[in-house]
Structure formats: structure tokens, C-alpha cells
């Protein structure tokens, strides 16, 4: 990066933001309307960004249309939940049948056991499981269960990790977090984490970890680090909780199957509900049996929509009819190839930009080397992330403002080729400004 390029970045970014505002008056008007009834015009913080967020009005396959009539290839994939793309006909048919058959029946339904069986088949460590409405809920309940089952009070988490809206761990304290007694360690640091587990000893209820940090920047866990967690929690009598809300899509059986690690508890969410609100937690039968309501002293687990008919129908159709093991492998091979191609373009341009991730999940970072933990991203220039976002929007590609990309099943070679071509055109500009 030259000093001239660094000095030019604010003006270039301001110009890009101004062009964005000029091109999206209807989104701006809708945002101003929303501000009158919601704080900041927002009810989901991750979707907010300055000067105002886009409003999408329709989607088909892997494409979106915004309120001002612009069309984008959707490389965000609803922050990994949109694996099936938009309005998949098989899932739409399943939802239509569920609606026609009556919803909110206030009872068990035919499909919930079939859906649970399909999930268990894909993730065998989930010997018994229960449904929730989100990955956040799944993680909340998994931690409560771990504390109850072990009779211990401490929960180990990793700096920069995200396990839901009430379980997020940046450098500063988050007032909305659940008030567990947390033990903090650093992702991918084997010896320091081993020592922390041993030091906590019989007070440690569980360790919760994503085998690849998702919201933390698509940072893969070192297999040796994750195996150490499995070994040390077992030795300590604590439980290992794999948060696979995002990573379950990275192979037919989630990353745990690729790593050959069997966690005590697994949490799921996002795409597995077929686009409907969904979460699940499950694991060892002896641990999950604490939720068996036929047994005296069982734990309560309420939730009006835990087994809602739409999610059961959509999730079962998607998992069995669309995201087959073969489809999972093909999607993740496509993602690996795309990530390698973009990294090659960035390297050739000397852009000082890397794309980290595994398979169909990846994140663009304005740093020189692939991060191993969130602290490695502390010096990343958010202004460059903003510029990636505005530039790619202008080129017709929708990604997260923080650089996250998640491929959906409808994305094919043509869409990947087009993205690589756009990145190739933009890379010299990015290199001059921040590389």
C-alpha cells in the first residue's frame, strides 16, 4: 500500500457511498419509514449499515431484486441460512401442502419424527435431539443442559466467537449476553487452551466451539486443536459442544464427520429448516434424556413453534430431497475452487487481501495472511471491507458488508466465473488503495 493510496481511500469510499445512495432512493425512503416505528429502522442488527441498508423485494434461484429494480447474484445466502436459494419448488410444494393441511394444530405432527430421523442419519452423534426456533436457542439450551448434566457452573468460550444473539464474545462485554460463568481462551491456541481446561478442572461444565468460526471470519479450526478439545473435555468430565449451526453444511455430515470427532452435544440451525425458522440441539442419549418429560425431574423445554408444521415440512423436504450427500459434496467443491481462484487473483494483483473459509462458506479480509483467530483481524481496515461491498454491489453481486459469502445450491459455474471476473477487474483498484 502506498501512502498516496491510503490517503485516497476516504475520498474513494465516500464517492462509492454517494453513488450507492443516488442509485437506491426507494430503499432509502423505505428505511426512513422504518425508522419511525423501529429503533434505527432495524430489527436485526447485522442488516444495518450506513448510509442505509438495501431493501430486497424478491428472489428467484440465486438472484435478488431490490426496491429500486437492481438485480444481484446472491452470494450472501441469508448469512448461510439460504442454502436452497429462493423459492425452491420442492420446498414450496412441501410448505403449500402443510398450509393446506392446517397449521398451529397444537399437537405433535407426522413429520417431526421423520425430520429428526433424517437429521440423526446425517449427524449420528445426535443420538437424541430436540427442535428450537433458532441456532441461538439451540446453543442456549445446550449450555443449560451441559451445566445441569455435569452439575458444574463454568462454560469455556473463545474470544471473538459467536453462538447467537445472546452468546457473542468480542473483545468488550456484551450486555445482552446470558450471564454464565465464562472461561475465555483463544481459538486455535492448543497449549494455552489445554492449560485453561485443566486449570478449571471439576468446575468446567463444557466447552462450546464452532469447528470453523463463522461470524468470526470463516476461520477454520486446526484439527489438532479440535481433537485436543475432545480429549481434554473427556479427561475433565466436561462436555464438548460443537456449534455446527453454520458448519453443518460443509460436508454431508458436518465438519465433525470430516474431523472424525464425536462431540457430546451438537447444535444446528440456519438452512436445515428449509428457509423457515429453525434450530436443534442433540447428542448423547444419556445427556439428552434429561429433557424426557416422561421421567420425573426432567428439564422443561417450552416453545410454541418448536415443531411448527412449516419448518418440519420444509426442513424434511430440503434435507432429503435437495441437500443430499452428493449435493453437499458438489457445493463445497465449488466453494473451495471459487475461494482458491479469488485468492489467486488477489495474490497476483498484490492486493493484500485473502479469502478464508472452507467449502461453501468464505470471508474476504483486507489482511496479508489467512487468519488463525479473530485477533489476527484486529488491524483489518473496515473501510476496505466497505469498499469491497459497494464495488461488488455495483457489479451486481450481493455479499455481507463484513465480507461473508455463502454459496447456495442454485449458484453454478457461470455465477462463480462472473464473480471472479468482477474481482479481477476490481483487484488493481483495491491493491492501489489498501493492498
Molecular structure report:
By secondary structure, this protein is an alpha/beta fold. Helix content is 42%, strand content 16%. It contains 13 helices and 16 strands. The strands form four sheets. It has a seven-stranded mixed beta sheet, with helices on both faces. Strands 1-2-3-15 form a four-stranded mixed beta sheet. A three-stranded antiparallel beta sheet has the order 13-14-16, covered by helices on one side. Helix 8 links the parallel strand 10 (239-243) and strand 11. Helix 1 crosses helix 12 (382-394), helix 11 runs parallel beside helix 13 and helix 12 crosses helix 13 (413-434). The termini are close together. The relative contact order is 0.16. The mean pLDDT is 96.
- Structural category is alpha/beta
- End-to-end separation in angstroms reads 5 Å
Give the overall silhouette.
globular
The SSE order reads: HHEEEHHEHEEHEEEHEHEEHHHEEHEEH
The total count of strands amounts to 16
Whole-angstrom Rg: 22 Å
Question: Helix count, per DSSP?
Answer: 13
Strand order of the largest sheet: 4-12-11-10-7-5-6
Largest sheet geometry: 7 strands, mixed
- Helix-residue proportion: 40-55%
Summarize model confidence as the mean pLDDT. 96
Low-confidence stretches: none
As a percent range, the share of strand residues is 15-25%
Task: Briefly characterize the structure.
With 435 residues, this protein is of the alpha/beta class.
Question: What is the element layout, followed by pairings?
Answer:
Layout lengths: L2 H21 L1 H11 L20 E5 L2 E4 L4 E4 L14 H12 L9 H13 L5 E5 L2 H16 L3 E5 L22 E5 L4 H11 L3 E6 L2 E2 L5 E2 L2 H14 L2 E5 L10 H6 L5 E5 L9 E5 L1 H4 L20 H13 L3 H25 L4 E5 L2 E5 L16 H13 L2 E2 L5 E3 L6 H22 L1
Parallel strand pairs: 3-15, 5-6, 5-7, 7-10, 10-11
Antiparallel strand pairs: 1-2, 2-3, 4-12, 8-9, 11-12, 13-14, 14-16
